[in-house]
Design goal:
Layout: H1 2-14, H2 18-27, H3 41-48, H4 50-68, H5 84-103, H6 116-126, H7 128-145, H8 148-166, H9 172-188, H10 190-198, H11 208-220
Amino acid sequence: MNELILIIAAYCIGSIPTSVWVSKHFFDIDIRDYGSGNAGATNTYRVLGSKWGTFVMVMDVLKGVAAAALYRFLPSHYMGADNEWARTNFMICLGLAAVLGHIFPLWANFKGGKGVATLFGMVIAIQPAVAGCCVAVFLLVLYLTRFVSLSSILASVAFAVFILFIFNEKEPLYRVFAIAVALLVVLTHQKNINRLLKGTESKVPILKYRDRRRERRRGND
């Protein structure tokens, strides 16, 4: 019974529609009516700028961290060293509940974002070292391309590679979870992939000065 209550609580945490509340409170708009129509950090970057996009991303990551951390409210017999396997599995369930809440938020008519930031927060709570490696991949791709969608896709694929091969995680559910994450992110970014292939995907408004310098150099050449 306690486990079910915690899973419901994790879903409710994930359902907090940060970008929707920010856009309505500070800009009197619904972020879902603009840009890609998603209630996530990437669309917030495009529509409201880097300041609010960063805020939304941080808050969405914290949702995943907070949801996975709910395992601390489990009965004491879960907390022993011999129950690490059961505890990790339950943290995965809590994190997935939060991701589901982000995608289908109870507080925003079940129309949310893609859940990548919340998913990342969950990974931070469960395995920080893997999360750090995925951040490195994400930031490198973002620096080189300014495509958040491409950065998210490659970071999710890298997550599966790290779990399966680099860190060689033995827990079967965790290995299945890693593969599922990569597939889920790719599937939820089909429109972005199509736009990337067509060359019409929007870039986030960061590193603009770097790009302008490159354009000026090309013009001088």
